[in-house]
Amino acid sequence: MASRDQEQKTGRTDFAGEAVATRDVYGATLIELGEKNENIVVLDADLSGSTKTKGFSKAFPERFFNMGISEQDLVGTAGGLSLTGKIPFASTFAIFESGRAWEQVRQTIGYSSLNVKLVATHSGLTVGEDGASHQALEDITLMRVIPGLTVIVPADGYETKQALDAITEYKGPVYMRLGRSKVPPVMPEGYEFRIGRAHTFSLGNDATIVATGIMVSAALKARDILAKEGIDAGVINMSTIKPLDGESLLAAARKSRLIVTAEEHSIIGGLGGAVSEFLSENCPVRVLRIGTKDTFGRSGSPDELLKEYGLTADNISDTIRRNNR
Amino acid sequence: MQTILNSRDIGYLEEMAREMRIEIVRMLEKSGSGHTGGSLSAADIVSALYFYKMRHRPEDPKWVGRDRFVLSKGHAAPVLYAALALSGYMDRSMLCSLRKLNCPLQGHPSSKMLAGVEVSTGSLGQGLSIANGMALGLRLDKRDSRVYCLLGDGESQEGQVWEAAMSAAHYKLDNICAILDSNGLQIDGKVSDVMNIEPVEDKWKAFGWHTLPIDGHNMKAIADALDAAEKVKEKPCIIIAKTIKGKGVSIFEGKAEYHGLAPTAAELDVAIKELGGNGK
Predict the structure, then answer these.
(1) Gap from B242 CA to chain A (nearest CA, Å)
(2) Is the CB of B111 less than 8 angstroms away from the CB of A112?
(3) Which residues pair with A119 in a beta bridge?
(4) Which residues in chain B have Cβ-Cβ distances shorter than 8 Å to A81?
(5) Beta carbons of A73 and B163 less than 8 Å apart
(6) Is the pLDDT of residue A243 over 50?
(7) How far apart are CA A284 and CA A57, in angstroms?
(8) Who among A77, A85, A113 is closest to B112 (CB)?
(9) pLDDT averaged over consecutive 10-residue blocks of chain B (280 residues)?
């Protein structure tokens, strides 16, 4: 089991200070959670090797259900399991979980407010070579519009682990967005994830970058680039997109002349949309959104794609520099 | 009439179905909108479930040992509401609040708003997957509770129904019993004209299900089929109930237009007379 190897290799399961794919953390954490809580069940739609639920399937075969390539049935079955007191984690690629089964998530999971954890992997451009059909750039938008659904996008392995513990405790529907590729560690030692609470690294007088997922790492790099030029930029990790941490946003908007959002997702309706909605009503300030524009992804290596679509630290620092008065 | 749960008295079950039909047409006339035909076609089946077969406690809707009912064809909400009221989950007088603002009797059933509704339905094709999940969970817990899921024949045009059909057989869910309310009509006309689903029994057989075709208005046949379904092991079972849309009221019977139309006051008078009600 890859996840077991991971544990042995690192000698710990909190993933602090480690470059790791969030999906690998998911696989390892599921086994840990499954050992602690026998109500945890896991469902997948023929992608357990990729979503990393396979480790759980081997450790607890009687509590794992492969639904085959049928995402609508995956979501509905997870809903039914939750109605018998189980805590289902249902996984597939982000575009299929949020897109193919959107109306099942809305009607069965959201409307009935079921305790189902939709943990989707392979979000964003960093899916890479598989191309647009498999790159979810719309899932945050699709999931956050559903009433009562909590939407979480962890920034690194450490936060993923903590967020998984938190959503297991939390009673209610959750969508968690994970990635395929390795991400560098960004969250500080001792950091404690709480649903609905952003982490403010710092607030900048000139700008604050509100980032989510893998873009938190890029945002921190951009801050360092700008600091050398005397531009004071801050960074917030908005790992819970819904409910949005308005307090942290207000603090940033009061201090910074400019807010820049950064996400590996469409700027339409995602983090940028959520932040713009909140600030335009509560503390109007200029907001610039970095993310994919009104477009699909394409094949390429993850790094090539991030450059091609303007999702690098340089893109963030350029945007702030250009708009710095 | 005194309500008795788990009675196998066919005359009593028929009487409860008749009372349910009276409540159905009454609440629909009062609301001025809703689904008449598909509620009436399922009344006998739902009567047999709530007053004979299912183990449930209206005074304790979340009782852990209960059998579960999923109304996958959620537009037949009035038949579920009638069964819930007659078996004691709510006062009968609540039925007249159907579809009214801020009332728990939503146009399609909402589990968050009404005790006794296991899960919200209304968007077609989703109930069987949910029922399968319940059946898997109950089996994990080694409970002998059974799960009943009422499907429509028009609803069977939804692809998810067949995804779920495959899953139930794959996981050998013998604690689930689906019931197909095969009334032959959908909003746009005959199921066979709109999008033919026949040969539907062959389809379920091919998907690995045990099938029990019956006359869905013959109470003894329904009760017998529900008993027989319990004895099937290692595979799921579906009762294919041939029914008449609008059953029990001649002016609604076999008419596709009453899929989504509520009775007028004049039609209610006819309906109550035919159903032998007191005209109130």
Answers:
(1) 26
(2) yes
(3) A176
(4) 133-134, 136-137
(5) yes
(6) yes
(7) 49
(8) A113
(9) 88 98 98 97 98 98 98 98 98 96 97 97 98 98 98 98 98 98 97 98 98 98 98 98 98 94 96 82
| pLDDT at residue A313, rounded to an integer | 98
- Tally A–B CB contacts below 8 A: 109
- B146 to chain A, minimum CA–CA distance in Å? 12
Q: Which residue of B has its CA nearest to A101?
A: B160
A132-142: per-residue pLDDT in tens?
A: 999 999 999 99
Residues A119 and A65 in one domain: yes
Instruction: Establish whether this prediction's ipTM goes over 0.85.
Output: yes
Q: Which residues of A198-208 are buried (b: 16+ CB within 10 A; e: fewer)?
A: bbbbebbebbb
Give the C-alpha distances (Å, rounded to integers) separating A174 from A106, A145, A168: 12, 13, 10
Percent of chain A residues topping a pLDDT of 70? 96
Residues 6 or more apart in contact with residue A32 via CB below 8 angstroms = A13
Domain shared by A179 and A49, yes or no: yes
Instruction: Name the residue range of residue A19's domain.
Output: 2-183
Which CATH number covers residue A280? Answer: 3.40.50.920
Closest CA to B17 of B71, B89, B69, B86: B86
The Cα A153–Cα A166 span in angstroms is 13
Last residue of a domain, one of A183, A210, A227: A183
Distances in whole angstroms, Cα of residue A118 to Cα of each of A105, A131, A150, A223: 9, 23, 10, 33
Determine contact, residues A70/A45, Cβ cutoff 8 Å.
yes
Among all chains, which residue has been given the structure tokens 């059953």? B247
Asked if the B10-274 domain carries CATH number 1.10.3720.10, the reply is no
How close, in Å, is residue A63 to chain B by CA atoms? Answer: 8
In this prediction the pTM is 0.96
A109 with A253, same domain: the answer is no
Is residue A308 part of the annotated active site? The answer reads no
Chain B residues near residue A112 by CB distance under 8 angstroms: 110-112, 119-120
Q: Which of A69, A83, A87, A118 to mutate to test the interface with B (most CBs of B within 10 A)?
A: A83
Residues of B in contact with A65 (CB under 8 A): 136, 171
Instruction: Pick the closest to residue A26 from A139, A126, A165, A146 (CA basis).
Output: A165
Question: What DSSP letter does each residue of B99-163 carry, written as one string?
Answer: T-TT-SS-SS--TTTSTT--S---STT-HHHHHHHHHHHHHHTT----EEEEEETTGGGSHHHHH
Q: What contacts A1, CB < 8 A, 6 or more positions away?
A: A31, A54, A55, A58, A59
CA gap A308, A135 in Å, rounded: 14
Q: What CATH number is associated with residue A106? A: 3.40.50.970
pLDDT value of residue A13? 62
Both A107 and A224 in one domain: the answer is: no
Identify the active-site residue in A35, A62, A71, A138.
A71
Q: What is the mean pLDDT of chain A?
A: 95
Domain boundaries, chain B: 10-274
For range A240-244, the mean pLDDT: 98
How many domains in chain A? 2
